[in-house]
Design brief:
five-stranded parallel sheet
């Protein structure tokens, strides 16, 4: 970036001084991998040290000036007692028209993202401004803060003068190297594409494109592979529990961790640990370190999903993903050092319509949920009233993208062109054959969405709305605040399919009443039901109608009861709720029938004496339900789940 361009950019920028501090380090003292929280000027006062900004070395003696961008990694190795000043600031292009023009031509090139170091020709001039800034900053009054900003501009002017005199070359910080280093150091924490972009002062889209261009995969893919690599090492070289390992590598729930591990490795963590340890014994050799390297996979064709505990805002049925990853990408996944140096099946319920479009509706429509619509046939659009205000959508959208809410969309007879990932066992999985997968519902790939050129996007959260709203007309459905019927009405109003929604709801209510009568005639409807999930170390007990795992079908629609200790909570809890119970007290929470949510890798409880002694288990009234199948709460899935629940209850031995 040329100096005259830098000057032009500074002239059109708004700045804010965030902090100024003076630091003294003793001889031999070190600072390692400190991530700069903001753009910074570093000015050495006395002594000498070796400084590194993102690995680039600067031999700093007195009066050496460095500039680093937000997110840059700073290392200091002192040679003698070393004193320096840190001046943190934030800046951005203030005028929208200029900012847009600038970012279109050189999105990453602003003076604030440059790295450089030099020895000024007139060092005391710069020191004078820094001393005055420090003095004004310490006062903290409004007038003093205004003086601080004025002095900062004078400091910038003086530095640009000295840069020009010496013709100092500047270079851009490499966002890919920064991201790689950050992920390696922070993989245990909650990391999203947005948080990475914020960390390094880039837009999410720009960072993702740069990262993918240089590495071949996305930042989040790399994060996952880093976590999996660390987990492999812990599985092979420690006796930590699955829950402990999951927490150590950044996953708050071991079920979620187990599923994502299997997706990328091909087998569950427990089976992987057992297999590798058995191989080590057979071959009489130590466990191979290479097993923890990023990229190796056991079965590249296996696809699985994350667990629902990773939802953001709660609600009756939290969400998860399915994502098919190319084995070539995984094989191409290199170590951090190399990268840095290189730079359920069944009969389908009848749907309410056919095709991918929606029928037009000439009349205004009012619904009792958060979304309503009105069709303007003259220009073939429909105005949808949402919690984000009115949104104008196509009256007959042909290229629909939907996140998480795909079951309701499918039930209305609409096949989207792309959705967030879907579990293999989802009731409507076969209806989405050939549909593009966009990743997790809470972090879809914006570039992939743009490439699909959608004419309508439906999202379930504030975060996804903000991420995609500028791509195409986007409707936010606050799913966690709506009942199944309200949510279906909201989605139907987008497509002008209110009548189809009414038909679906009527059919569901009819099925519920028939199911209740069938169970009552069999002497089952008044029996107690427990819904559990877990293993040898404890069980999670569903304590609300919104817990998932069949709780809506059993407790809400069929109106069946849980044991009294659980039912007391179900009667007063209106949101997703459950408790973790130790195996020792579990029998107190078990009713006449037990639904246990299972997944690949779940503990085998057959030989557990406490589990086996529970009357419902001992007498054969245990019904295992597939986690994938009972994950969703859309009207399509609820229909299928009701069929399953009634069928399995009728097949089980009768409770007395």
């Amino acid at each position: 970036m040329q100096l005259d361009e830098q000057m032009k950019c500074w002239n059109l920028s708004a700045v804010k001084v965030l902090d100024i501090r003076r630091i003294v380090m003793e001889e031999g003292e070190q600072l390692s991998s400190y991530t700069l929280p903001a753009n910074v000027f570093i000015y050495t006062i006395r002594g000498s040290a070796v400084l590194q900004l993102d690995g680039r070395t600067h031999n700093a003696e007195r009066f050496y000036m460095l500039h680093g961008a937000k997110g840059t990694s700073l290392d200091i190795q002192t040679i003698e007692d070393f004193e320096y000043i840190l001046l943190y600031y934030r800046a951005f292009l203030a005028f929208p028209s200029y900012r847009k023009k600038w970012l279109l031509t050189q999105p990453e090139a602003t003076p604030f993202s440059l790295q450089y170091g030099f020895t000024p020709n007139s060092p005391l001039r710069l020191l004078r401004y820094l001393d005055e800034i420090e003095e004004a900053w310490a006062q903290s009054g409004s007038l003093d803060l205004l003086r601080t900003k004025s002095l900062f501009y004078q400091f910038i002017h003086e530095m640009m003068v000295q840069l020009t005199e010496q013709e100092i070359k500047t270079e851009l910080a490499d966002p890919v190297k920064q991201t790689l280093r950050y992920i390696q150091n922070h993989y245990r924490e909650q990391v999203t594409l947005d948080s990475l972009a914020e960390q390094f002062n880039y837009s999410s889209r720009h960072l993702s494109m740069q990262f993918k261009r240089k590495t071949g995969y996305s930042p989040i893919d790399y994060l996952i592979q880093t976590r999996i690599a660390k987990a492999r090492t812990l599985l092979l070289r420690s006796d930590a529990t699955l829950s402990e390992i999951a927490a150590e590598v950044g996953y708050s729930d071991m079920y979620y961790f187990s599923r994502i591990f299997k997706k990328h490795v091909g087998i569950s963590p427990i089976l992987y640990q057992r297999k590798m340890r058995e191989e080590a014994k057979t071959e009489d050799r130590p466990l191979q370190i290479s097993e923890s390297s990023i990229g190796r996979r056991w079965m590249s064709g296996y696809i699985d999903y994350e667990n629902h505990y990773q939802y953001i805002d709660g609600g009756s049925t939290p969400m998860k993903r399915r994502k098919t990853s190319s084995s070539m990408i995984m094989v191409a996944l290199l170590s951090i050092t190399m990268l840095l140096s290189a730079c359920s099946s069944g009969t389908t319920i009848p749907t309410a319509g056919e095709g991918t479009g929606a029928s037009s509706n000439n009349s205004s429509t009012s619904v009792s949920s958060d979304t309503g619509s009105q069709t303007n046939k003259d220009n073939e659009t429909r105005t949808v009233s949402t919690v984000k205000g009115d949104v104008v959508v196509p009256a007959n959208p042909k290229r629909v993208v939907v996140l998480y809410l795909q079951g309701d969309v499918v039930a209305l007879g609409i096949k989207p062109i792309a959705t967030s990932d879907v579990y293999d066992g989802a009731a409507y999985k076969s209806e989405l054959e050939g549909v593009n997968a966009l990743g997790t519902w809470f972090e879809p790939n914006p570039e992939a969405v743009i490439d699909l050129d959608p004419d309508l996007i439906i999202v379930p959260s504030e975060e996804t709305y903000m991420l995609l709203k500028d791509i195409a007309p986007t409707v936010y459905i606050p799913y966690e605040k709506l009942s199944t019927e309200e949510r279906l009405h909201s989605i139907a109003s987008i497509f002008g399919k209110e009548q189809e929604a009414e038909t679906l709801i009527t059919n569901l209510n009819t099925k519920v009443e028939k199911s209740k009568k069938t169970l009552a005639d069999a002497g089952i409807l008044d029996k107690t039901i427990s819904i559990v999930e877990g293993g040898l170390k404890g069980m999670n007990i569903a304590e609300s109608k919104q817990y998932g795992r069949g709780s809506q079908a059993v407790y809400e629609y069929l109106g069946m009861k849980a044991p009294e200790v659980v039912q007391k909570k179900i009667d007063v809890v209106s949101e997703e709720a459950g408790s973790s119970i130790s195996m020792e007290v579990l029998p107190e929470y078990i009713g006449d029938y037990v639904f246990r949510s299972v997944y690949d890798g779940a503990d085998n409880l057959t030989d557990n004496p406490i589990w086996s002694s529970i009357p419902a288990i001992k007498e054969g009234r245990l019904i295992e339900i597939d986690f994938d199948f009972f994950y969703y709460s859309d009207i399509y899935s609820i229909n299928k789940q009701l069929d399953f629940v009634v069928e399995k209850l009728l097949e089980a031995p009768r409770a007395q």
